[in-house]
Specification:
Layout: E1 5-11, H1 14-17, H2 21-28, H3 32-39, H4 43-51, E2 56-61, H5 68-84, E3 89-94, H6 100-114, E4 118-122, H7 136-145, E5 149-152, H8 158-162, H9 170-177, H10 182-196, H11 199-202, E6 208-209, H12 221-228
Parallel strand pairs: 1-2, 2-3, 3-4, 4-5, 5-6
Helix pairs in contact: 5-6, 6-7
């Protein structure tokens, strides 16, 4: 059997769960058996890898816009778990994207000190995407380190949810803004914004990972490419 490596594999740190009332409320909605698995980075996780015939899991923290101190603690905890199971686990760093210079520094620390293989970042910050040049230090550092950034869907901001509301319950709008459509459409939209802003011209060796069969881009690449290439 060929080695199976999985990339979008989350965990949940108590550091994040207890970092704010919003985080506590978010994780309170998780069924206990799911949260137990998310918070485990040892025997239960490795046993599940064996059951799924997974050779190596690239572990990343679940969505959460947190500050530098929290990211540092989360990444250090993940590094310790990887040291306990170095042949089965590897790490994507959690970065404080609200502070791009600090995010770039944390990425470098995690790669050089902990041996992480990249970072997973949320698709936007309350509706703000990363085509603005203020975020580009993170792209520059990722290119210099030759590691990928995984851009992961995240929940819509309040203003973004408004676009999904219609003649149906708000619960439907929330679903459409998330797993029903928005997570994937907005991530594809983000990649097009980076392309149109010249990110890949400035950083030609930058590696970006997206999931979910390309976040809707493959089905429309002929049209979108023609309209964003200048």
């Amino acid at each position: 059997m060929r080695p199976l490596i999985t990339l979008e594999e989350h965990f949940a740190s108590q550091t994040v769960i207890t970092s704010s009332d919003e985080a506590k409320a978010h994780y309170a909605h998780f069924p206990s058996h799911i949260l137990d698995k998310l918070t485990d980075l040892d025997q239960t996780r490795v046993a599940d890898l064996d059951k799924g015939h997974v050779s190596l899991q690239i572990v990343s923290h679940g969505p959460g816009n947190v500050g530098t101190g929290v990211c540092t603690k989360v990444n250090d905890d993940l590094a310790a778990a990887i040291q306990r199971n170095p042949t089965r686990l590897a790490g994507f760093a959690m970065l404080p994207m609200r502070e791009p210079d600090a995010a770039a520094a944390e990425l470098e620390r995690c790669v050089k000190t902990h041996g992480f293989v990249g970072a997973l970042i949320e698709n936007h910050l309350d509706g703000v995407f990363y085509d603005a040049e203020s975020f580009w230090p993170v792209f520059a550092r990722a290119q210099d380190l030759d590691v990928p950034l995984y851009i992961h869907p995240t929940f819509a901001s309040d203003s973004m949810v408004e676009h999904y509301k219609g003649n149906y319950p708000d619960s439907v709008a929330l679903a459409l803004s998330a797993f029903g459509w928005g997570w994937h459409a907005e991530t594809g939209h983000h990649i097009l914004r980076l392309f149109a802003a010249g990110v890949f011209d400035r950083f030609p060796k930058l590696k970006i990972i997206i999931g979910h069969m390309g976040e809707m881009l493959p089905a429309d690449c002929a049209r979108s490419g023609a309209r964003t290439s200048g």
